[in-house]
């Protein structure tokens, strides 16, 4: 049985004053029955870790460098994230692929570094609107999976997030049928490459405008083990009902 995961991506949002949102989340979800993760900007990680020290809410980064250390101005290594108290890192988000020209080979090397540092790697894949309209979605996702996931992946150290680029921050959400098709495809690919044991234990998250109003419907889809949430993770009042919907889905499954 895969434990469900509600993960929040704060992107380039948040100052120290916003850490009160984490305090509120911890208070609202003491004894959570699903895994909880917030990935704030690098500047808030250490303070966020301190706030959540006695709670199950975990803290992660939004990127890391593939090298352990060295002359890479402005970058952060996986070991540095671990040292700051992080447990996870988001890799290959479509905004990083677009803004920083990251390709799947980069993502694979970063994920390997994350594994070596003892971090959970949340590897993002997703098609553009043009790719979906050209009916290339599964080819694109298949290629990203092959190249972005390192051989070091296990169910304990890797999560895959399916995030259609056209649904991120747009208010558009993939339909349950679209999500189910891609998640079943990802599961089959993982089982083929890693065998049934590992392939069935890697958790699959959906991301793309998840909010209170659509969470329950999305969490009912096969092979959806949780969500990677952007905008709706910034405020406790928005994220909390999504967590509750995931807990309800876990109870029902
Ligand atoms: C994301 O940034 O990973 C994301 C899914 O954003 P949003 O929920 O705002 O669409």
Description:
The chain is of the alpha/beta class and 253 residues long. The protein has one domain (5-252): TIM Barrel (Alpha-Beta Barrel), CATH 3.20.20. The chain contains ten helices and eight strands. It has helices spanning 20-28, 45-51, 78-83, 94-99, 104-117, 129-133, 137-148, 176-201, 212-219, 236-252, and strands spanning 5-9, 35-39, 58-61, 88-91, 120-125, 158-162, 203-207, 226-229. Strands 1-2-3-4-5-6-7-8 form an eight-stranded parallel barrel, surrounded by five helices. Helix 1 (20-28) links the parallel strand 1 and strand 2. Helix 5 (104-117) packs across helix 7 (137-148). The longest helix has 26 residues, at 176-201. The radius of gyration is 17 Å and the shape is globular. It starts with a strand and ends with a helix. The protein binds phosphoenolpyruvate.
Features:
binds phosphoenolpyruvate; 8-stranded parallel barrel; 10 helices; 253 residues; TIM Barrel; alpha/beta
């Amino acid at each position: 049985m895969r434990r469900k995961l509600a993960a929040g991506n704060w992107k380039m949002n948040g100052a120290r004053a916003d850490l009160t949102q984490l305090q509120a989340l911890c208070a609202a979800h003491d004894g959570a029955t699903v895994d909880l993760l917030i990935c704030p900007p690098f500047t808030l990680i250490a303070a966020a870790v301190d706030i959540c020290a006695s709670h199950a809410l975990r803290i992660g980064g939004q990127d890391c460098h593939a090298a352990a250390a060295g002359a890479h101005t402005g970058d952060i290594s996986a070991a540095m994230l671990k040292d700051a108290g992080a447990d996870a890192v988001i890799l290959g988000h479509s905004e990083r692929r677009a803004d920083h020209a990251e390709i799947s080979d980069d993502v694979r090397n970063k994920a390997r570094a994350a594994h070596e540092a003892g971090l959970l790697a949340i590897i993002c894949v997703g098609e553009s609107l043009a790719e979906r309209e050209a009916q290339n979605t599964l080819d694109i996702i298949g290629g990203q999976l092959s190249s972005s996931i390192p051989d070091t992946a296990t169910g304990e150290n890797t999560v895959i997030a399916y995030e259609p680029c056209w649904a991120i921050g747009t208010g558009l959400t993939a339909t349950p049928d679209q999500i189910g098709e891609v998640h079943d495809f990802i599961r089959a690919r993982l089982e083929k490459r890693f065998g049934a044991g590992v392939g069935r234990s890697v958790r699959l998250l959906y991301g793309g405008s998840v909010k209170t109003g659509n969470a329950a419907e999305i969490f009912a889809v096969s092979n959806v083990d949780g969500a990677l949430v952007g905008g709706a993770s910034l405020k406790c009042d928005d994220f909390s009902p999504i967590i509750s919907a995931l807990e309800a889905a876990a109870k029902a499954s």
